[in-house]
Amino acid sequence: MANSNPAFNRSPAFSDRAAVAGKFPNAAPAATADMTAQQLTELYSQPSATPDETGRMTYEDTMVKIILCFGILIVAAVVGWFVPFLWIPAAILGTVFALINIFKKKVSPALVVLYAIFEGVFVGGITAFFESQWPGIALQAIIGTAAVIGVTFALFASGKVRASARATKVFLIAITGYVVYSIVNVILMVTGVTKGAFGLDSVDIHLFGLSIPLGVIIGVLVVLLGAYSLVLDFDSIKTGVTRGAPRSYAWTAAFGLMVTVVWLYLQILRILALSRR
Q: In angstroms, what CA-CA distances link 95 with 7, 84, 184?
């Protein structure tokens, strides 16, 4: 199943089309129809190997990498908060390292960590700017993002929410439409066609006697898209573990989740700013 997050989509470790035996030589052997009863008995009587012995990706090791990367990102965000003018170069470097991590064939922990550092500085700096304009918005955005992540993960872990081919197809169409809308909005803002700090997002839409910024309406839909993107990320990690992907791909999982969470956080920050303008 396709994942909109390029960090997962470009990696064979998280693809349903990847053949474990061909792609990942360290994967555990699977039972086949032509095995004899004795061979099956020997296969299933073997003691379970540890991740160190097999070199395979596990939930535990992946969680450690995720916590480590987000810890680094948060520390860097604190630096960006106190030195906000660094957000522009940090945004550029963060984008560069994101692209390198996406297109690099071999997983590099160092590059993932560098992305976490620069992206963290960018997030901290841009948050400090928003906080100076709308006091209290930073805490609201953090709580909102944590709530979306927590609820999405709980629903996914319980099995009540799962990715499906049809939903993913609709999601990809919707996210493509939003990207096109964002590009058009930026062009209109740069050329001076639209006024206001958020361009088209600042346009008021009158619904049920209320005046609501267009960006808030679109933002609610975008948050839902972000939640489904998290579902796809969780599903990709599950696929990687199930298929016995190499242990190094835990770093790819951490990178992919950071990309989604940062994007979700920035969208919530924008929605809150629009609602308080």
A: 13, 18, 20
Contact 80, 86 (CB under 8 A): yes
pLDDT tens track for 168-182: 999 999 999 999 999
The candidate with the shortest Cα–Cα distance to 13, out of 171, 238, 259, 269, is 238
pLDDT tens for 63-95 read 999 999 999 999 999 999 999 999 999 999 999
- Dihedral sign computed on CA atoms, order 112, 120, 198, 202: positive
SS3 247: coil
Task: Report how many helices (DSSP H) and strands (DSSP E) the chain contains, helices first.
Answer: 11, 2
Q: What is the pTM of this model?
A: 0.83
- Start-to-end CA distance of the chain, whole Å, equals 40
